Amino acid sequence: MINILVTGAGGGVGQGIIKSIKLIDDLDINVIAADMSPLASGLYGGDEAILVPAASASDYFDVISQICVENNINYYFPGTDVELLKAADFSSELYQKCQTETAVCPKDVIEIADDKYSTYKFLVDNGFDAPNTRFPNDVDLNNLHYPIIIKPRVGCRSIGVYKVNNAQEAKNAIDSVDGPVIQEYLDGDEFTCTVVAVKDKISDVLCLKRDLRAGDTYRAFPEKNTVIESYVKALALKLGIYGSCNFQLRLDDGVPKLFEINSRFSGTTPFCAQLGFNPVEFYLKAQLNMPYESDINYDAMVLRHWTEVVVSKSILNEKTIAKPFKVESLKVSSMI
């Protein structure tokens, strides 16, 4: 039995990891889903569920350690952005304490990915094409080629991202963004690309052309593109990723230019898994020295939809932090 802890079960990343685990049919896996709220629907997609403090809490990793020791956790998958840096710091201690592997990138990779300007500098310093990125004080807004993108230097989920068409709009956007950068606008197809690296193994790259709604991918179309695949794989190797990493880019006259790195399993992980490349399965089997072959269906597409989960109100009174409970039968089920 392989015991896996997945945090952030209330969000798309945690839920996507759980969905992808459930698609693995040749490993005996017990999933403990964790979140700070009993109302997190993803809690009820695992085999067991557990409540934890907020990831920002001072005792968060004490609780994670306790869970891993008491439940013989083999793999811990952080499902929230806010715990990634601390999880990377904590991973060695956690392994020494209870032999739990943490599916997290090295700290320096996370720091580069979290900072849009650091991402840009890493790309250009290592010979990768990227959209030109500058600080507002380094440019004359009246002499830029519009449209341009204004975004937070550190941000997520497209919050605070503006496409502006003139200097006045740019100034307004800059004034409304905390720590803004100015980025070249690329008017090409947008792709979200997934690759996994474990030890000396690196997976295939799955490129999804995507449609966005409120910052999330809600329609995705797999495309075989050797130029993008080569760009992403070379970048993943140069960065030194560990586990899954998500690269977002646009094609500019056929040239891939990356503008975003998510140094974790992404919200499109279950998209990949259902199309024939399961990033979680690749990670686990690479860890276990088992073979894994992807079989991507390029004739399919993914259309995201809501799913309802119905549970008893009694969960609000019965469950306590750091005490796992069995997932109850659902009237209307469906994590998958």
Write a structural description:
The chain has helices at 12-22, 60-70, 84-98, 107-114, 116-125, 167-176, 226-239, 269-275, 279-287, 315-318, and strands at residues 2-6, 29-35, 48-51, 75-77, 101-102, 133-134, 148-152, 162-164, 180-184, 190-198, 201-202, 206-213, 216-223, 243-252, 255-262, 302-303, 325-326. It is of the alpha+beta class and 336 residues long. It has 3 domains: 2-103 and 307-326, 3-Layer(aba) Sandwich (Rossmann fold); 108-114 and 187-303, ATP-grasp fold, B domain (D-amino Acid Aminotransferase, Chain A, domain 1); 132-184, ATP-grasp fold, A domain (Dna Ligase, domain 1), CATH 3.30.1490.20. The strands form 3 sheets. Strands 10, 11, 12, 13, 14, 15 and 16 form a 7-stranded antiparallel β-sheet that branches. A 6-stranded mixed β-sheet has the order 5-4-1-2-3-17. A hairpin with a 2-residue loop joins strand 12 and strand 13. Helix 1 runs parallel beside helix 8 (269-275), helix 2 (60-70) packs parallel to helix 3 and helix 4 (107-114) packs across helix 5 (116-125). The longest helix has 15 residues, at 84-98. It is globular and about 60 Å long. Mean pLDDT is 91; it is low at 329-336.
